[in-house]
Amino acid sequence: MRKLFTGLLITILSAFALVSAIAETDTTTLAAGLTSDSINSSAAFTAGAGSTVNGYATAVAAVTLGAGATITGNVTAGAAFTSGDSAIVKGSVSVKAAYTSGANSSVGGNVTVGADFTSGADSIIVGDVNVTGAITLGAGSRIKALSIAAQE
Fold first, then answer.
1. For the chain, how far is it from start to end, CA to CA, in angstroms?
2. How many domains does the chain have?
3. Cα 40 versus chain centre, distance
């Protein structure tokens, strides 16, 4: 009985290790409604509507979040960042190109943008905002920050 339990435990742990390894591979798309651990992409990354990333999302190119998508960590993109309505990033966002968010979106940390910054209506940024280009705030948008810097 003990050998059977030990063998079963090893099989379960091996399966868990395989799932963990898959979660850490290069990911370019997370389908709508699915959940993943942290994301690393050697290209662009797209999270479908209602999906969740429990951790960070890092992409060499653009990052796109569908409506209602959530990322619990930071987002880093080598190109643009775009989010659909009601998307949530609980960490900071750092992008080398433009930032565009849908209505009712939120970022719980700082935002650093290498081009123009556009937020949708009723969106909120809790941290500091540092933008190289123009800043456009949708109706009812708020930035709760210590500093806002635009450098054109």
1. 71
2. 1
3. 11
101/137 Cα distance (integer angstroms): 10
Predicted TM-score of the model (pTM)? 0.81
In this prediction, residue 15 carries a pLDDT of 42
Please state whether beta strands 88-89 and 63-65 pair in parallel, antiparallel, or not at all (unpaired).
unpaired
Whether 60 is in a domain gets the answer: yes
Q: Decide: 29 and 48 in contact? Cβ < 8 Å.
A: yes
Residue tagged 């951790």 (tokens):
55
d(CA 133, CA 150): 6
Structure tokens at 7: 């063998």
Full residue range of the structural domain in which residue 140 is found: 26-150
Q: Please report, as a single letter, which amino acid is at residue 102.
A: G
**Rounded to whole angstroms, how far apart are CA atoms 105 and 60?**
23
